Amino acid sequence: MKYDGVKVLVTGADGFIGSHLTEALVASGASVTALALYNSFDSHGWLDDLPEPTRRKVNLVRGDVRDPAFTARIVQGQEIVFHLAALIAIPHSYLAAQSYVETNVTGTLNVLEAGRQCGTERIVHTSTSEVYGTALTMPITESHPLQGQSPYSASKIGADMMAEAFARSFGLPVVILRPFNTFGPRQSERAIIPTLIRQALDPSCPAIMVGDTSPVRDLTFVSDTVAAFMAAGAAPKIAYGCPYNAGSQRASPVSDLIDMVIALTDCGKRVQQEDSRFRPTNSEVRALLADCARFERETGWRPKVSLRDGLEQTIAWWRARLSQGRVRRQKDFIT
């Protein structure tokens, strides 16, 4: 993929996937502007953990995509925009739905409008497999019905439709990438794999607390998801305004993930269910499994990292974090 010297903006670069994407783009020779959400702690999120030689090559910017004037200024002059900025915590969306609409829908609208006004060559908009809700048929193709089973997923459906509308109405070159569940180093404990690993390794945790262990997930290691973003940004014949799935195309019940993490960490702790970690009954997405044939055909992308290898890399990262005392406990729902 040809990124050498290309001017690229990554919104949401301070997050889990965004920081890995920023790192990969720098390694590919791109001229990267990385947007982190403004805060009063002088922090750029996970970008602060990048190796110093990488950080020096990144133009670090703090701001908020909800501000249209600010968004227009940072999009100006960029050739490719990777739009990852979003509120993603599903449990919090039950409590603060409007904030998800403001960031995920209006923020996306601001990025799309800025790209239209500035003549951006391509925008890669980040969707999510959550827009499908519980699978009606599996594997899930891009034609699967959209189901807003949480305020978060509803806001992402709205953002996806806005991206489609801008492609249809204005010819905006926007690619809608729909990653399935991604895991790896730097992921928040809001997600199932990091919360399992941290509890398995942390001596202060007497048990591994879980929620519903029956949902099935399609889990992709972060380096493969990053490769999907880069393919979406560079593929010469990709279609605009329609979604592309990117997942491992493997289905794993949460119960199997628990067993794998216990085995790989040599953990002897008991597993205990906790009511607060369950989603509302009608909101739980029971099963996700990607059909990525269309994306593979049009970009050549394929996932390379097995679930076991990805878990081993993630466990090694958590061991290092815990040994350095750099972990703050987070209690949340399993997603």
Secondary structure layout plus pairing:
Elements: E1 7-11, H1 16-27, E2 31-37, H2 52-55, E3 58-63, H3 68-75, E4 80-83, H4 90-93, H5 97-118, E5 122-126, H6 151-170, E6 174-179, E7 182-183, H7 192-201, E8 207-210, E9 216-217, E10 220-221, H8 222-234, E11 243-246, E12 252-253, H9 254-265, E13 270-273, H10 293-299, H11 307-323
Parallel strand pairs: 1-2, 1-4, 2-3, 4-5, 5-6, 6-11, 7-10, 8-13
Antiparallel strand pairs: 9-12
Helix pairs in contact: 1-8, 3-5, 5-6, 7-9, 7-11, 9-11
Commentary on this structure:
The chain is an alpha/beta fold and 335 residues long. 39% of the residues lie in helices and 16% in strands. It is built from 11 helices and 13 strands. The strands form 4 sheets. The chain has a 7-stranded parallel β-sheet, sandwiched between helices. Helix 1 packs across helix 8 and helix 5 packs parallel to helix 6. The C terminus is likely disordered.
Characteristic key phrases:
about 325 residues; alpha/beta; Rossmann fold; 7-stranded parallel β-sheet; two-stranded parallel ribbon; 11 helices; 13 strands; about 15% strand; globular
| Element pattern in H and E | EHEHEHEHHEHEEHEEEHEEHEHH
Shape, principal axes of CA atoms: globular
* Largest sheet: number of strands, sense, barrel closure: 7 strands, parallel
Radius of gyration: 19 Å
- CATH superfamily caption of the domain at 7-183 and 222-246: NAD(P)-binding Rossmann-like Domain
Distance between the termini: 33 Å
- What would you call the structural class? alpha/beta
Q: Could you tell me the number of beta strands? A: 13
Give the CATH class of the domain at 7-183 and 222-246. Alpha Beta
Strand content: 15-25%
